[in-house]
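Structure, all two chains, one model.
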Amino acid sequence: MSLQLISPDINLDFVGKRYFFIALSTAINILAIVLLFTKGLNYGVDFAGGSVAQIEFTARTNGDAIRKALAPLDLGEVTVQDFGKAGQSFLARFQAVKNIGSIGPRLETALDKAYGPGAAKVVRVESVGAKVGSDLRRKGFFAVIIATIFMGVYIAIQFRHVSWSFGAGAVIALIHDVMVVMCALVIAQYQFDLTTLAAVLTVIGYSVHDTIIVSDRIREDSAKRRREPIASIMNRAINETLSRTILTSGTAITVLISLLAFGGPILRPSAFTLLIGFITGTYSSIYIAGPVVLFWEGGSGRTRTASSRAA
Amino acid sequence: MEQTQSFGPILILLVLIVSFLYMHFTNGSGLTRIYLAGGIVLAAILILLPSLNVDLPDWFKAGFGATKIQLGLDLQGGTHLLMAVKLDEAVKTQLRRRADDLKHELKANKIDFENISVDDSGNLSAKLKSSADRTPFLDLVQKSFSDLTVSSSSDSSGPGPSYSLAYKTRELQTIRSNAMDQALETIRNRIDQLGVRETTVAKEGDNEILVQLPGIQDPERAKELIGKTAVLEFKLVDDSKSVQDAIKDGPPPGDDVLYGTSERGGREPYLVESPVLMTGDVVTDARVRPGGRLEGPYVAVELDARGAGIFDAMTSENVGRRLAIVLDNTVYSAPVIKERIPGGHVQITGRFSMDEAHDLAIVLRSGALPAPVEIEEERTVGPSLGRDSIRQGEMSFVIGAGAVLIFMAVYYSGAGLLADFGLSLNILLLICVMAALGATLTLPGIAGIVLTLGMSVDANVLVNERMREELRAGKSPREAVKLGYDRAWSAIRDSNISTFAAGLILFQFGTGPVKGFAVTLCVGVLTGLFSCIVVTRAWYDYRISMRKLTQISV
C-alpha cells in the first residue's frame, strides 16, 4: 500500500456538529446579504456600463497624477486603480462619455500632454453602454436560474429512493456557496465582470458536483443498510469519502493558488473567486446539503419514510 | 470572413464519438480498445499540428485542413464592437420616400393638400385643403398605398380633414429586417476591404451587429469606416443669397445650411438647395486617384446608366452653378459646373489625405448604411497585453497542473501515472475538439476547462480510492478494478450529466462569455469521461485479459 493521507477507518462526527456549522453558515449568509445591499458588488463596466482603460507607463506614477492629467477631458468622476507592475500599470474607470468609440486616443493625447509623448500607452479599452450592461446581467442571471432548477430536479430524481430532498439540498448548498463567494467579492472589492461571472458559474458547477459525489455514497450505503437511521448513514458516507474529498479539493486548491500567485492581474479576480468557491463548495456538501436532507426527513432520530424504503 | 471548414476534423470527431460509444458499451478484450485509444491520440495530434505553426505539406492541408485553435480577442488582442442599428431611422427614411410618392400622386389626381410631413415618431401626417377630397383621398391611399394604415387625426386647424398614416405591422417588420440585412452586408463589405484576417461580422439580437477584428493595429480608423452612414447626395449651392444671413436668421425656405472644411482647416458654411438631385445608390465603383501636387488625391466615381443620365441632365441644366457633393450632411466639395458631363464619370475632390481618400472610396463602393449605427460596446485589447495574459495564464497553469500530476503519481504510483496519462489526454482532446468545432478560446472558456479538469481529477481519485477500499476488503486485483470503476460510476455519471446539461442550458440562454464557458464545459465533460474513465479502464481490461494483472499499484 502506498501513501495514505486519511486513515481508512476514520470516523469523525460530522453530522453531530451540524448545528454549530449551520449557525456559522447562516451568519455568513446574513453578512453577505447585508454587504450586498450596503457596500454592494464592485460591478465592472460589463454590468454597470461605462468605460475602463488599462494604461501602462514607462515610469512610476500614481493615481492622483493620472486623475489630474485626465481632468481636461471632462470625463466626470474618474477612479484610478493600481494594476500591478510596480506603479506602472493602472486602470482608469469612468462613466461612459458621449462618443464611446474614440476614448483610447483621447486618453493618450491627454496623457502625452501631462507625461510627455510616448510615456503612457493605453493597452486596453472596454466601453459598454448602460443598456448592454443591464441586458447582459438579465440574460446571464436567467441562464443560471434555469440551469440551477434543472440540476435540482435531476438530482431529486436520481436520489429519490433515499429522499426527494437531495435536489433541494444541492440547490440550497449552491445558493449558499454563491452567497459566500459574493460576500468575499464584496469584501475584496474585486471588479465583478463577465470573467468573474464565469468563475461564479464554475463555482456553481463544482458545488453541485461535490454534493453529488457525497450524496452518491449516501445513496449506496442506504441501499445496503436499510434499517440504519439516515443521520448515521450520512456520517458514515462523509467519512468514507473524506479521503477523496481532501485529495480532490486539495489538488484543485493547489492549482488555484498557483493561478492566484502567478496568473497576473487579469486572472486574479477569477482565481480568487474560484478559490473561495471551491472551499465553500466542498464544505457545503457536508454541512448544508446534508442537514437539509436531515431536516426534510424529520431529524436524525427517525428512519427513512415508508415510501422511500419501499422504492 | 467565414471559417474554412475542411472535411478532416469533422471525420475525426465522428470517429471519436463512435469509438467512445464502442469502447464504453463493449467489454471484450481490452486490446481493440487500446488500439482505438492509440488511434484517437494520433488523430488528435494530427488535428492539432496546424496550431503549432509547423510547416505542413500540401497533401496534409488538403486532407485535414488547417484548422487552428481560435483565440478570443481577450487573449490575442484586437477590437470587439457591438453596434446598434437605428432601425427606426430606416423606417423614417422609407416613410419620407412614401410621403414624396404621396405628394406626387395627390398632384397627379388633383387633390389639393395643405401639408404632408413625417414626424419624429414615424407618423406621416397629411392635411387636405377641402373636405370634398375626403373620399378620393381615401380611395387613392387604399389603392396605391396599401402598405400604410390610415386614420383620421384630430387636427382642426383648417377646413380640410387631417389624416395620420403609418406602416402596417407586417410592412414595418419587413422594412426593419431588410434594413438590418443591408446594414450587415454593408458593414461586412467595408470590413472585408480593411484586409484584416479572421474577422467576424454577425447579427446579435434584433438590431445589433457584432464586429470582431483580431489583432488590428488602428482600431480608430476601422471604427470610423464602419460607423459612417455614407449617404452621398448631390445638391445645388444657392449663391443667390448670403450664407451669413442664413446662419443668422435661419435658412430661407427650400434651402439648408451645411458645413464643409475650408482651405485653412476651419468650418466653412454652404447654403444649399434642399432637393436632392442624385444619391449614392447609383455609384458602381469608386477608386482613389493620385492628384497633382497641389490638389492631393481625389476619388473617381463611376455611375450606372440611370445615374449617368441624371448626372448628364443635371449638369447640362445648371452650367455655371456650384454643385455640392454631400456625404452624411458634410460638404466635401462644391465645384463649379463648367460644362455638361455625360458618361457617368464623376470626380470627388476635397482636401483629403491618402487614407481619407481611400476610406471614402471604400464607403462609396460598399454603399450607404440604411440607418445610422451607434457603438454600444467596445473592447480593445492591445496585442501585447493579450500575449501577456496568455503567457502568465500558461505559466500559472503549467505550475498548478504540474503539481497535481506529480502529486497523483506519488500518491497513487502506477494508478496515478495512468490517471496522469488520462488527464494529459483530456487536455489534448479538449483543445483538439475545440479546434475542430471552430470554437473560440477565451478567458471564461479557460474557467470552463479548469472545472472539467477538476472533475476529471476527481473521477480518477474516486476510482482509485474505491479500488483501495476494495483491495482492503480483501478483493482480488481483478475484482477491485471492476468494482472500483463500477461503484464510482454512478457518482461520476450523475455529476457529469448534470454539469453537461447545465452547460447546454447556459449555451442556449447565455450570451457571449457565458456561451464560451458553456462550450468548453460541455466539450470538457465528454473528453474527460472518455480519457479518464474509458481509456484508463481499457488499460486495466487489457491487462486483465492478458492475465498479467496479478497486482495493481494504487
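Chain B has three domains: 9-47+70-75+382-545, 88-173, 228-279+305-379.
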